[in-house]
Request: fold
Amino acid sequence: MKSIAIINGRIWDGERFSAGNVLVENGTIAAVGTEGYHAEYVYDAAGAVVSPGLVDIHVHFRGISIPMYGFSADCGSFPFGVTAAADCGANFGDEALVKSFGVKCVVFANVGIASDGTPDLARAEALLEKFGSAAAGFKVVYDCEKTGGTEPLRKIVARARELGYKVTVHTNGSAVPMADIIGALGPGDIATHVYHGGRNTAEADGFACLLEAKRRGVVVDAGMAGTVHTDLGVFRRAVEAGAAPDTISTDLTRLSAFNRGGRYGLTACMTVARAVGMAEAEIFRAVTSSAAKALGKEGEWGRLEPGRAADLAVIGETGRGVDFTDASGNRIRTASSYESLLTLSSGDIVYSK
Reply:
């Protein structure tokens, strides 16, 4: 269809809510306002939020991440309102593969660390070259039992700065305190799984490390993975302490898509964030404009405004809630949850409930 009007919605433009209608023409957002628009197809979004397409900054897609984790890019995205994502475990693939996806995608290449603390940057750099414009940076699973410090991470961050890349760091399970990991990162780098339980949690210093991260421009990412990398009690207490995440992501894998809360995606994570006390504007910002900025894509993704590609999500409520219990026995069970009712990618309807 050349033209689509989405009417009567509660519009989230990436920063604030307002009431109004959206007109899409030839794959582009043509107008946003309160007047009525004529179009080939009219969708009534009464009672729902009309948002920029959601951005999931931590996923694992088939053909890029290892087969154990890789899931279908479009099937793991469009049904949840996600129109753009970042694969955070690239070991395979190239730019042509990414361009074959319907969902827009960038990648972070895995950097292994040898037992002597030497990071294997050469392999990661060679892989990122194959991804061309889709290359976002380095991914590090930081568990330095053998090296015992942050020096390998500092080397990776320094090389990323030289190449114009970002670094995203898996923090759960690390022998290094969260404050030390945060201290090794620079502005624009991403610390994910920051609300994990167990040793060296962000709560060890009363969440001061996360507040410092936000002050310095290090991105604080929930990276939920259901409750595999999230302690719901830590998450709730962090929000109460003013250390809510800058971004909310799924860490979606083949193993989690239909196995965490029944139907796992970014809307489920948003529902959990609401349950632990995040305000709705905080939640939507964390999956649109802030997520796009975290990936260096603020000029393309995460905003609903005329002239942009028509990547849109209509997010409503379903009577089917979420039910998560973490390793510490903390449980979140809700009566309803966010769900995508309609997803548009570059003006095409790619999902409709």
Remarks:
- DSSP finds nine helices and 17 strands in the chain.
- The radius of gyration is 20 Å.
